[in-house]
Amino acid sequence: MTLRHGKAERSIQELYRDDPERADAVAFGRRGALKGTALAAMGGMLGAAIPFAGRMPEGTLPALFARPAAAQGAAPAVLRMEGKAPLILQQERPLVGETPEHLLDEPVTSYANFFIRNNGGIPDPVADPRTWKLRIDGEVNTPLELTMGDLESRFPVVTRQLQMECGGNGRAFFAPQTRGNQWGNGAIGNAEWTGVRLRDVLQAAGAKETARYTGHFGADPHLSGAADRAAISRGMRMAKAMDEDTLIVFRMNGQPIPHIHGAPLRLLVPGWPGSLSQKWLTRVTLLSQPHTGAGMGGTSYRMPVRPIVPGSNNNGADFADMESMPVRSILSSHAHGTRLPAGTRSLDLRGAAWAGDLTVRAVHASVDFGATWTEMQVAAPANRHAWQRWTGRVALPSDGYYEIWYRATDSEGRMQPHAPANWNPQGYGANPISRAAILVG
Ligand SMILES: Nc1nc2c(c(=O)[nH]1)N[C@H]1C(S)=C(S)[C@@H](COP(=O)(O)O)O[C@H]1N2
Ligand SMILES: [Mo]
Asked: What CA–CA distance (Å, rounded) separates 334 from 73?
């Protein structure tokens, strides 16, 4: 969608970003409630009447133009990989693919629809996974070197549905824009993982009193090729390492883990930034001080304790590590921008919601720009740390342009905000209410 203004033709999104008041005036010739020619202008741009125009908050940029894919001014690039759905190609090197939100419609996310996030290269697959060794060392009484066979025979094997979400999921909603992959809501997956508890393995190694943090290491090379640099190497507090749902996994959805997701072994640290879930796992070390690997400290996976000025520079020295992820919901029954047949008068909505280590208490949807909200039915999670599916029905009074607004509330009463809060240089934790545009007729 482009907008003519003098000689320049710019995307409406760009114009809104640079100068919202002028963009609003140029686009709709007004500030204030939509009426008369302004309403006709917006309707014309959307290609439809807006039945709830009277409830549209002043200055609202229609979701049809505001969502990230549209913001790029072009159709997103597509990832083409054997067995994978056409994910949104965020980057080729390192390889990063986002799942379009409407493909996350399965209760258990398949390999095909699971997002991909790499920070470095992709290691060569090993010929025989049985030869893979995992080292446990540092502040332990007995350092261990374990094969896959050792893990399976020495420790209880558990299978859990666990949600894993990139710390930067939702980053594209931040303004001003931050560095990093411009994720929408699709850097999330909820697969069924099989493995052993990290806790059992650390106990077998005899974690010392002095062990307070973990450090994680994987086999993937740094993009520069430098052998002494890690692509990513993060760590967490012992409390999370000892959580019963923090696993060393070797199967995803009942199959050996696909190579791109970390075969043959990876960590799965549900509810906390995905970067802790080290793929191609070779070593876990226990430390008395926070780990200092790649992706630790500064502004990496860290959030301001006191809000900072959006867009300002900050070295993150007094930020705090991001831990449990904030509440978020997705809509999987209808793709953003869907056109439905004339006469459609109700929509059966479906999606998922999750909230880091917490659960989701409620999901609400609105089709009238947030003036009224309908409570959806939210299912219990399959187990702790699994996402929760939701369903519900909304009524549409006539044909035209609608936005489905959807938002979740966590078990402590925190709701997704109208705009992302606590802006930070690397764009973590943006979880605003989402908006999907739907055209009827
Ligand atoms: N070894 C290794 N592990 C890694 C990464 C990586 O680049 N290398 N990326 C992390 C990040 S940032 C995320 S969000 C998840 C993504 O896992 P996936 O690619 O299986 O979806 O893996 C994490 N584990
Ligand atoms: Mo991530």
From this structure: 22
- d(CA 169, ligand 2 centre) in Å: 8
pLDDT tens digits for the chain (441 residues)? 344 333 344 555 666 667 766 665 555 544 555 667 777 878 888 888 999 998 988 778 888 877 655 444 456 799 999 999 999 999 999 999 999 999 999 999 999 999 999 999 999 999 999 999 999 999 999 999 999 999 999 999 999 999 999 999 999 999 999 999 999 999 999 999 999 999 999 999 999 999 999 999 999 999 999 999 999 999 999 999 999 999 999 999 999 999 999 999 999 999 999 999 999 999 999 999 999 999 999 999 999 999 999 999 999 999 999 999 999 999 999 999 999 999 999 999 999 999 999 999 999 999 999 999 999 999 999 999 999 999 999 999 999 999 999 999 999 999 999 999 999 999 999 999 999 999 999
User: What span, in angstroms and rounded, lies between the C-alpha atoms of 111 and 192?
Assistant: 10
User: Nearest C-alpha to atom 10 of ligand 1 is from which residue?
Assistant: 275
365 and 376 in contact (C-beta within 8 Å)?
yes
User: What whole-number distance in Å separates Cα of residue 212 and Cα of residue 10?
Assistant: 53
User: Among the residues of 222-277, which ranges form H helices?
Assistant: 238-241
Which atom of ligand 1 is nearest to 280's Cα?
A: 1
Cis peptide before 270 (omega within 30 of 0): no
Three-class secondary structure of residue 14 per DSSP: helix
Among all bound ligands, the one having the nearest atom to the CA of 231 is 1
Task: Using CA atoms of 189, 192, 194, 199 in order, give the dihedral in degrees to the nearest 10.
Answer: 60
Q: Ligand 1: does its nearest atom lie under 6 Å from the Cβ of 220?
A: yes
Where does the chain hold its CATH 3.90.420.10 domain(s)? Answer: 96-321
Index of the ligand 1 atom closest to the CA of residue 165: 14
All CATH 2.60.40.650 domain ranges in the chain, comma separated: 328-440
118 lines ligand 1 (CB under 6 A): yes
Q: Is the minimum distance from the CB of 103 to ligand 1 under 6 angstroms?
A: no
Identify the architecture of domain 96-321 in CATH. Alpha-Beta Complex (3.90)
pTM beyond cutoff 0.70: yes
CATH topology of domain 328-440: Immunoglobulin-like (2.60.40)
